Request: fold
Amino acid sequence: MIYLDNAATTRVYDECVAEADKYNRQLYFNPSARYRLALQAEEAVKNARSVIASALGADEGEIYFTASGSEADNIALLCSLRRKSGRVIVGAAEHSAVYQCACELERRGYEVAYAPVTQWGAVDIAALSSMLTPDTLLVSVMHVSNETGAVNDLKAITSLVRKKSPKALVHSDGVQAFGKLPVNVRALDVDMYSVSGHKIHAPKGVGALYAKKSVHLSPFVFGGGQEKGVRSATENVAGICAFAKAVPLAAVRMKEWLSKAANARAAAEEYLKNNIDDIVILSQRGKCLDTFLSLAVKGVRGEVLVHILDDKGVMIGTGSACSSHSSNKRIPKVLGLNEEYWDGMLRLSSSDGNDPNDLAEACKLLVEAIKAEREYIK
Reply:
């Protein structure tokens, strides 16, 4: 089996399975209870918060645990605005969690604008600059694109926002960056930053939002007052502790993998270009993470190719798993792809669980599948 859909989710580290098991079966107590073993669970959550905060360059009190990166994005966009009207700017190719929140804000009466992106998926900073106004309330730009792996220059973006829209909050969806790139929220000067556990080999169902102390968040879930009243719910202690366990492991293992991934990804791109006509490489080298190889092929259906490769023991994606069941063509449109390529978008994404030969083998089978599909539909 070759798994190359790590941008969708990752295999949980064995160490994280053991950590989750500990808090599911031994210290399974509610952290809000006051007996001794429950206090140990509470302390475990506190320690995990410290680990996440340290990895982000934040303070413990600025970390809010959530059920996912999507939930963290929702809290950032829907719970941080103090005014009832004003301008909100998001990247045109944002993850659906941010995009759908922007649509909701528009329904609530905010003026929402979408910053154009380059052909590889990064926000066009010059275009963004022209959109910033003194009444802009919020700017949300992802750190790394979930579609192409494009890396946005967050520091340049925040500097621009501070200059032209000094009252605006800056949020970044860091789900695809955290664990792969060094992240320091102070240096980046973001007000809010979202992360997720299952993208870095922790279990699904846990994420976190960094929110600067000066950011006031309205309650997202009402109840017992957990997470400083923003997200009331009994803490997912097992998931939180497993997430914290994954953070230092991923930092080391992904750094090692990235040193190998660059050559494998470059060779795979050249192989595809040399063996397939009418192909567009969306993940441009030097501008995107080397764990991504996203492409679009003319005259084929990506979903068909996914099924063909699946039968051969290779798993790849057609793009964001959160929007794979939608007929929405927002992403290929904003990337400027010719309509003939829209159905042929594919994403191969690696992680430290892969072998350097996985990408080469997958691309060999992909070329065969593309040629077979094209022959079939002649």
